[in-house]
Amino acid sequence: MQRADRPLRCVSYCEGMSQNLGNPSHIGNLDAAQLGPQPTYLPDDHPDVDAKRRLDAGEEPVDVASILPSSCLAWAELADEAFDEGRTVDSYAYARVGYHRGLDALRGAGWRGAGPIPWTHEINRGFLRSLYALGRAAASIGESEEAARVEKFLNDSDPTAMEQIAGNRG
To answer: Which Pfam family is one of those matched by this entry (predicted)?
Structure first.
């Protein structure tokens, strides 16, 4: 028991053993930024692999979506077709389906709601295209807040994706 007339003294177990760590955000060769969420890659057996093969062979997106309803790519293609034809509400609906199918697949691949979803991984592109199409359609029907959220999500997922997608459409 501590007596009231004696001051408390805290003793560090490491007293005299401290060292200057320098910049606390760099520990050795490890940068703290590397500790953030790791990139998510949809698996090689994702339905977009078969969907891409079918679409490249000339099958219609509507047929591919009916055969492979979990394919983000098929829904993104449908969203693009509808948007190009001026059917913005249809485009919004198709893009939303592709987006939600993609969220399910990403969670199944270990994604925790944040972190990179690289465009360079081809199987991720159907999801990223659905996300882009959702933002575009949302903006066209006056859902500006949703369009801004989607744009941020797309940019956070891969800062190059928007440019890649827009460039491939132009």
So the answer is: DUF3151
